[in-house]
Amino acid sequence: MNYHQFSMFTNMKTSKGSIEIKHLKEFKYKIQEISSLFDVEQNAFNLNKGDRRFVIIDSVIDQLYGHTIRKYFQGFECQTFFEVIDSGENNKSLSSFLKIFSDLDRFDVDRRKEPIISIGGGVITDLGGFVASCYRRGVPHIAVPTTLMGFVDASIGIKTGINFNNHKNRMGSFMPPQAVLLDETFLSTLPTRHIINGFGEVFKIALIKDKPLFELLEQNGYNIVDDITLPITKTILHSSIVDMLEELEPNLFEDNLDRCVDFGHTFSPIIEMQDCENILHGEAVALDCFLSSCIAFSRNIISECELKRISSLYFHLKFPQILTCNKDFLWESVLERKKHRGGLQRIPFPTEIGRYAFINDLTKCDIENGIEIMCKLLTKKK
To answer: Of the CATH numbers 1.20.1090.10, 3.30.1360.120, 3.40.50.20, 3.10.28.10, which one belongs to the domain with range 200-380?
Structure first.
């Protein structure tokens, strides 16, 4: 689907008492849609007889597809180690990282020739990528997302990480994958809630930068939530992925901290981490987008008509209807995000559907006003 490619230059300058090193490294990775990914005949992983692979796999995926996946590797007489991990934010942890790292060290992959393969949702691909970035200071890895969230967001960029001290992705790295392989077969067995979870990121990118995609969701979103196999799904997912990559590719290492893809990620980290047993990442992102839109309306940034469309789609996609939001609690997240964004808030707000502006003067009062508007809309819906 896409390649990311950069130039390589090395330039060393010397002057009295100092040496300046400059190095830009070239890399590229491929995001590829492949049906029947674990078909021996097409050999999507480019295996040779007798190869070795360390595979990190979600426990549910292992139950559903483990036999097929193992049969694929056996077809090449491939020596494999399967690290089976339960999904969920609680397992995106230092203890999980150390367990995988220890098993990987015993298996002892070749630093260049034996990529780690991560098969699962965002938790698994984030974990696998972070382990790969640390082991021997970096070994190749291949991401195989099996959730809608993984397809449209978690696996297609270069960020990896784990949660630490109740902070989301506090430990992490920028580590380009060798490849990202997308097989929509996995989506057919997703529970409805995890389909809704993935649409949280689709809702985000459509609202902040892609009006035609937003309109597609208005026309088809309700049906797709109930049946992810509908033909229109491919169009919606492809548009969402392309939208995301258009923003990520020029700024993969986040040198520019003004990022429209941070929409939905000002309040959501603290919402998610404070209740990760009951709210999923995409649900928290969607709630953040809804609240941010209500704040934008309270500040006369968007019109009432636009807010009605946003709230209507929010309800149609069956996102969480949470009435309890504390302004002091959410303000803590704003202060933390300022540290993450170079000392400024840099909060993207929709000015209309598909367009945005950044603000740096959000107040606690703004949050309170936004909560009040959001609660009125939620109460009216109920």
So the answer is: 1.20.1090.10
